[in-house]
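Before drawing any conclusions, I needed to go through one protein's amino acid sequence and its backbone structure tokens, quoted below without any editing.
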Amino acid sequence: MHGSTPMRHFITDENFPLVPEYIEDQPTDRVHSGPTGPRSPEGKAISSLNSLKHGCRSEKTILPDEDPGEFEFTVDWWFEHYHPQDNVAVTLVQETARAQWFFKRNTRRLEGFEWELPTDPSSWTEENHKQFNNFTRYKTTTERAFFKCFKELEAYYGRLDRAEQLQERARAAVSKLQMEWCHRDYKAAAEELKTTQVVEVQVLDGKTVTSCYPTDQQIIKEAAQRPKPPIYLERFVLFPNGVPPEYSWANPNEIQKLSETIGVQKMTYDWWLELIKREQAKGTGHVGPILFLDPSIA
């Protein structure tokens, strides 16, 4: 972290220029006879959230459903990753961390909305399509903003690469960040919904070795001890030295075959149980793709 720049000073809301919250369907031609509504700072802060629909266009750093601890962890992670040594670098790291936080927020909003939609898109209403397009646009806007900040940060540090490599490294950084957050402080609410598995694939003495943390058996045992089994599972597949031939099903490009790469598999817990049966039946000791509809893939 840069010299005299305190982290606590960066993460407080009052240090960011705030814009009015996104309010839908509010008339703009009202005539007020005088001051109304709350006057205290606390009352105004609460009132500002009354018409917040989804927060996708909000510039507030922390929304009511977000964890301040996770945001602080996110900012600290970016600072520890780059160790900025001057004011310009500090600013670039701050902007990148905040842009990634907003990108994650809108990604979560889109995924939540998709979960509530009918499974068959042909049965979507006109309003469903409209809202889906809106949420997709919000996510795309913040994704572009994050990649723009990340590119400027990388350019300042003199590590520019081709656009494809740049995006791969950005996505790898975000995946690694999220994995470390889950290991550091796994939220109780999230534990009721999902579980996580980390798979490390290395080539040792010319042999590809796959290790799972926790193991399949440990996950099944832990799930049996819960009041309810997890709903879905995230599997982070780490390739510290590149993707070996045994994992050609991941369709790695030439860069990914030779350099550190992180893949993410997301599936329901029931699908995962079926997947590990197929993996065990093959007897290779490696994990496989999430393909249940193609009978040609064992």
About this structure: Residues 170 and 279 are 30 Å apart (CA to CA). The two ends are 49 Å apart (CA to CA). Residues 186-282 form one domain.
